[in-house]
Design goal:
This protein is mainly α. The chain contains 6 helices and 4 strands. The strands form 2 sheets. It has a two-stranded parallel ribbon with strand order 1-2. The chain has a two-stranded antiparallel ribbon with strand order 3-4. The protein binds a DNA duplex through helix 2, helix 3 and strand 2.
Length: about 110
DNA sequence: CCTATGACGCCGG
DNA sequence: GCCGGCGCCATAG
């Protein structure tokens, strides 16, 4: 597996429970040049490590754009709700209060 | 080598 | 604010 993929997964693993981040923020932090690369990496993350908290990565508007790639179409939402996050129409309620950035690391 | 395909995002109208 | 268009870049065929 390539290094940037490893880096992406490392960041995703650091997202605090109850928080989410975006494809773009991860791409910016790692200077990947393209948020698509993060999406591409997330698409096959379960092949690498099924414990990666992929449900905590959403698009820049707070929509669960990756929900159809989980085991069932509702798995992503269920996992987020279990962490105290509210979802409405496949979108995170109070997204600004729930979003986290790799920059926030100490 | 060239085209198509994204779990994306910015910009202009 | 909602599109459409385009830039982005690894991968597959």
């Amino acid at each position: 597996m390539s290094q940037y993929q490893q880096d992406i997964y490392d960041i995703v693993r650091l997202i605090p429970k109850g928080k989410v981040t975006t494809y773009g923020r991860i791409a910016d932090y790692l200077a990947l040049g393209s948020a698509r690369m993060v999406g591409w990496a997330m698409n096959k993350c379960h092949l690498i490590d099924a414990t990666i908290p992929a449900h905590r990565v959403v698009n820049r508007k707070g929509e669960l754009s990756g929900r159809l790639h989980f085991e069932t179409p509702t798995t992503m939402q269920e996992r987020l709700e279990k962490e105290g996050i509210t979802i409405q129409n496949h979108c995170i309620v109070d997204f600004e209060k729930r979003v986290w950035s790799p920059e926030d690391l100490e």
